[in-house]
Amino acid sequence: MNMFRLVVALLFLAYGLIIGVLNTQPITLKLLFTEFQTSSGVGIMLSLLLGVVVGGLIVLATLVWPLYAKLRKATLAVAPSQDAGA
User: Fold this and answer.
1) pLDDT in tens, 41-72
2) What is the pLDDT of residues 9-43, one digit of tens each?
């Protein structure tokens, strides 16, 4: 399984390098208080990375944390009953 993950990671890295090499046109990224010059390949990769991070945080906040809280409550509810039975 680890070899599969390594191969997938290397494929994505190669894909990112190809995007960066093929998209060399300069662009200006204008942010709220600043702007900077970069190539369009870097801009594409940064926007993809930002999308993955924001999407991961949304999943974490709306799915993982509530399920973890339910699991913690269930574990605490089961723990005293196990102590009483022993």
Assistant:
1) 888 888 888 888 999 899 999 998 999 999 99
2) 889 888 888 888 888 899 998 888 899 899 888 88
Q: 44 with 25: CB under 8 angstroms?
A: no
Contact indicator for 41, 23 with CB cutoff of 8 Å = yes
DSSP state string for 25-72: -EEEEE-SS-EEEEEHHHHHHHHHHHHHHHHHHHHIIIIIHHHHHHHH
d(CA 56, CA 86): 42
Own/partner pairs, 45-48, CB within 8 angstroms, 24+ separation: 45/16, 45/19, 45/20
pTM: 0.66
Provide φ and ψ at 28, rounded to 5°. -110, 120
